[in-house]
Design goal:
Blueprint lengths: L3 E5 L3 H14 L4 E6 L9 H5 L13 H6 L2 E5 L3 E5 L4 E4 L4 E3 L2 E4 L3 E3 L12 E2 L4 H11 L6 E5 L3 H12 L3 E5 L12 H13 L3 E3 L4 E6 L5 E5 L4 E4 L1 E4 L3 E3 L15 E2 L11 E3 L4 E5 L2 E5 L4 H15 L12 E6 L2 E7 L7 E7 L4 E8 L2 E10 L3 H15 L7 H7 L5 H6 L2 H6 L29 H8 L1
Parallel strand pairs: 1-2, 1-7, 2-3, 7-19, 9-16, 10-11, 10-16, 11-12, 18-20
Antiparallel strand pairs: 4-5, 5-6, 8-17, 13-14, 14-15, 20-21, 22-23, 23-26, 24-25, 25-26
The protein binds flavin-adenine dinucleotide.
Amino acid sequence: MRTQQVIIGGGPVATNALETIREFDDGESQIVLICDEPAHSRMALPYWLSGRVPREHTHTADDAYYHNLNIDARIGQKVTGINPNANKVTLDDGDTVEFDNLLIATGAAPVGLKVTGTDLPGVQPLWTIAHTQSLLDATNGIATPRVALIGAGFIGFIMLNAMYKLGWRLTVIERETHVLPRMLDIDSAGLVQSWLDARGIQVHTNASVQAINNGDGGVKVVELMNGVRIDADVVIVATGIKPNLDLIQGSGIEMDEGILVNNRMQTNFPNIYAGGDIAQGPVLFNDQPTIHPIQPTAVDHGRVAGANMAGQEVRYPGSLLMNILDVCGLQNSSFGNWEDSDAEAMTISNPDGFIYRKLLWTGDEISGAIFVGQANDMGMLTDVGMIKGIMQTRTPLGPWKNFLSENPFDIRRPYVASKVAEKLVGTTLLGRPAKSRQFRFSGVEPTTTVSPAHDVFFSTKKS
Ligand SMILES: Cc1cc2nc3c(=O)[nH]c(=O)nc-3n(C[C@H](O)[C@H](O)[C@H](O)COP(=O)(O)OP(=O)(O)OC[C@H]3O[C@@H](n4cnc5c(N)ncnc54)[C@H](O)[C@@H]3O)c2cc1C
């Protein structure tokens, strides 16, 4: 009998899992994919918003793709119940689907804001294809829309960057003391704030929203507790996300903040797997299972779950927390335990040059890092990659720790001397190098446009 593999979701966990199953099963198993949205990459939504790519390029699968991989894709359908003891799921049309293995890859959703006015037209979150479309519709015909962004977190700022590229007039409201509170410390966030100030983007920190009201002519008025009023054509509520756990309640699948998974992505039911934004699993530099709601973790989880569903024994070493973000031309990144106040810190900062670097040490191992710098700072960009490699391979740096305290900009020497590149080349999740997916929506090749921000890297070749 063919193994029945059922996957709920259509994001990176789901697509990577089904491709990995097919890689190992010679087409033998029956795969059913159920997703209430078309399969797509949320990461690509800002590129569509800013007009860099057409909407189709956010999609990560189409009918031909499902046909080639022999997937029974039920797009537009929602799973409304999971019965782990009977090994079946129930769909919104009342149909049931049985499984031998189940992967729950249903992601997360915006938490929203509990104040009056969030239900007004023109007030919305920005997380899905539908949200992106409604923002484009709401701003259509307005030359330079005014947008109030409530919440200065990672996702909100990714979208802020897209709106900045469009020349929109932007105001940011953040409840905490500084922007990007779950990505940067207060000093590095200060650089981001002055960078935004210099670009005419108003930032209100320590600012809570009291209400959102209708003003004259369809304008929205965001009222802050401190009495400030902000007029906007559109208000984006980006106050964080939470895993979509409603479906799991009462099923017997163990959860904490997310669904608890082991290093094979299994839940407490060995034939039920979970991954991505909904999963709380193994991470580097922390013994406690944690949710890392980022694309690289989702991709890894999908591959590990898919391999194990196909009968392999693949174990995940744990994901590295990483946030890499372009804020209107200023590059920011943080890794691992970047806010560990017990760790030994080495910090260098040049606020005038918008440079900030912080390395956090546990013994002679880098367990956290923060980098801020400008896009044309080639050193910064390569150093970020090398720090990520050092952390991913968990390489102890021995005497190079002292060297870095005296030469904080020279990461290349410890990186090369500690053979980090060699270790990275030998590290694979599935025992082979990663492969390109080769997926093109409707067979259309992407049109490549190089952003002017990258011109500097090619300038010598051009002249
Ligand atoms: C605008 C935006 C930009 C981002 N940019 C970055 C970035 O630059 N870097 C980065 O690392 N991360 C980024 N992320 C985060 C990243 O996209 C997520 O971590 C990733 O999508 C998680 O993948 P997933 O497969 O777990 O869930 P998702 O991609 O959310 O997919 C889950 C799917 O399951 C569907 N679903 C949910 N419940 C059900 C149900 N009951 N029945 C059927 N289907 C269901 C959902 O509708 C959804 O389509 C971004 C996110 C957003 C919103």
